[in-house]
Amino acid sequence: MEPHVYVPRLLTDAAMREVRKIGLPVVVGGEDPPERAALLRDAAGAAAVVCTLTERIDAEFLDAAGPQLKVVANTAVGYDNIDVAAATERGVRVTNTPGVLDGATADLTMGLILATARRVLDGDRLLRERKPWVWGPRMLLGLDVSAGTTLGIVGYGRIGRAVAKRARAFDMKIVATPSRSAPPDDDVEFLELPELLERSDVVTLHCPLTERTRHLIDAAALRRMKPTAILINTARGGIVDEDALVEALRSGTIAAAGLDVFEDEPRVDPRLLELPNTVLTPHLGSAGVATRERMCRLSVANAAAVLAGEEPPTPVN
Ligand code: GLV
Ligand code: GLV
């Protein structure tokens, strides 16, 4: 049987047309993630897999696919869903989609900062209750964002820098954890995490999820933050110890959180849903029309390049 290209979840229409141009048979899943058994079955015999962050690509998957598999192209910048070492051992290239979603993710980050600080959802809920209300000098006061408020950026890479660019326009002071990859910016003060947590009014996470960053924000880290501080996470849920976060939000250790990602997606801890001081979105960081198009096309281009014996545009291994 001729090897195929396996696309477990429908990409954008334009990207699906690009997949078909590769010239191999194409096996396509639907809108929703396939069940594990279907994933393993449809991967069998594939030369390329163009997947998303909801597919767990581990040794079992790679063995189910078989030795003709050449590339796993993740349609995401984060690739914590992929066991890269297992892929490398088997000679399988892994690619991701860096660079094309920095602006979109930074935009949503600013949205969560503003919505959380200025209590947009509290205001929305108040109106929807259809009770009488009137402007008041003490009503729904929140954190002033553009008052020299300090923004702490954990992970000063491409997305972290895109957030800094936006924060400058809001007159925020910017502190960030030291980064090996990013050139230093004159107006950014680089601090180790404990000091960053102590100094920031808003802490926003932009590091990848790795063994080193899992539960980076735990109970002890949350205790270092100001009681008036806000935590924003548009990176990966596992960077935050969610149990500790719920406790910190309940007890007033920190003031509020804006979360686009969760530890056990798609499950959202019901305790987070019940807290009044959270703003929650369902992993929408890169969910802009043009951004998604660029991600999907880059992902397909990566797979096509490897199948053509070329170096992919954005390799991981
Ligand atoms: C989305 O979460 C991504 O990693 O691109
Ligand atoms: C508020 O609406 C103001 O005019 O200050």
Automatic annotation (TrEMBL):
One of its GO terms (molecular function) is glyoxylate reductase (NADPH) activity. Residues 110-285 form the D-isomer specific 2-hydroxyacid dehydrogenase NAD-binding domain. Residues 32-317 form the D-isomer specific 2-hydroxyacid dehydrogenase catalytic domain. GO terms for cellular component: cytosol. InterPro entries: D-isomer_2-hydroxyacid_DH, D-isomer_2_OHA_DH_cat_dom, D-isomer_DH_CS, D-isomer_DH_NAD-bd, NAD(P)-bd_dom_sf. Keywords: NAD, Oxidoreductase. Belongs to the D-isomer specific 2-hydroxyacid dehydrogenase family. This is D-glycerate dehydrogenase. It comes from Actinomadura rubrobrunea. The lineage of its organism: Bacteria, Bacillati, Actinomycetota, Actinomycetes, Streptosporangiales.
